[in-house]
Structure formats: structure tokens, C-alpha cells
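We treat protein structure as text, and this decision shapes the records that our systems exchange. The remainder of this section carries one protein's record, kept here as part of the documentation:
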Amino acid sequence: MQAIMEPIFHVVYLTTVITLGFKMVSKSKDNYFKSFGMMSIILGLGDSFHLIPRIYALLTTGLESHPVSLGFGKLVTSITMTIFYLILYKIWKIKFDVKNTKTLDMIMYLLSALRITLCLFPQNEWFVNNPPVSWGIYRNIPFTIMGIIMIYLLYSYGSKYNNKDYKNLGIAVFLSFAFYAPVVLWASESFLVGMLMIPKTLAYVWVVLIGYKEFKKSIK
């Protein structure tokens, strides 16, 4: 069942976020929606480095037989997800015309640089089955701090300006981390824990759909 349903889910997910992203980039002259579109495209293209090899593995000899391609995909996805949050931060600034954020900018960029640097350490052992959980935790510490900052900014500004979409963005980001944390800690021990990647992915689809809904309203 997994070999059938999971590839279908991944194809639908990648097609949806990349298509909606290209629509926002190509049909809008507004930097706000172009940024939303680029964020969606980076999300989809980055995840494709992991999900396409995963689809191939599921349809052929199984996940255990493709540690290198799957590991490389996870590495790329880890980096592109960091960029995803930097763009989301930029989107928040544009939306609410936030200025004088030099300190916060520095924090976000330093966390991003630290996250990407940690991802590049050989101790992550990306290209083997069952890499060390400890390094999965280390590289996700700055990433989680970025997520907490974005949850606070999105939800608090959504509440302050009575913007339901941004409150929902904050909730979506919170859910993505809530579903992702157990995967980092225990996915190697339980297949069911790994299944939490599905609602985590749907949380990101929700982020894209919120932006696309706002985009559609703007062109009517």
C-alpha cells in the first residue's frame, strides 16, 4: 500500500506547490506575491530532491537500497527549507511594512548560516541508512529557533492587525514543527512516527494555499 499511496501523495504535493508558485511569480507584478511564489517554488523544488528518489525507491528495490540518493535529497531539502523561512520572513516584513529590523535580520541570517553549516558537517552521515539522531537534533536547533520566531511574528501581527490569514500562517508553521519534531527524534525507531511527515507536508501546503488565496483576491 505504501508503494502506491505515498508516491501519489508526493506527486500531487510537488505538482501543487510548484504550479501555484509559478502562477504567482508569472502573473503578479507585486513583489509580495512574487516572493510568495518563489517561496513555494523553492519548497517544491527542494523537496523534489528528496521525494523523487523516494518515489523511485518505493517503486523499485525499496528505501534501504538507496541511502545515497535519499540522503543527498535530505541534505538539499534541509538547506532549501532554511531558505524557505528566510523568504517567509521577508514576506512578513513586506506585508506589514516592518522597518528598523537590523537586529532581527542579523539573528535570522545567523541562525540560517548556522543551520546550513551544521547540515554540511560530515558527522551528519547523510549517505547511510539510520544516520545519528544526535546530529539530527544539533542541526535542527537553529532551525527550530527560526520557526519559533516566525510563529510569534506571524501570529502576533495577524492578531494585532486582525488578519486571519497571518494568524493561520502562524498556526500552520507551528503544526509543521509539531509534526516534524517527533520525526527527528524517533522516526528511525517507528514507521508510524515517520508518517507524521504527511501532516507536516500538508501544513506547508496550507502555507502556500494561504498565499495563493490572497493572490487570487488581488487579481479580481
Summary: The chain is about 80% helix and 0% strand. The chain has a mean pLDDT of 95. The CA atoms of residues 22 and 210 lie 15 Å apart. The radius of gyration is 17 Å.
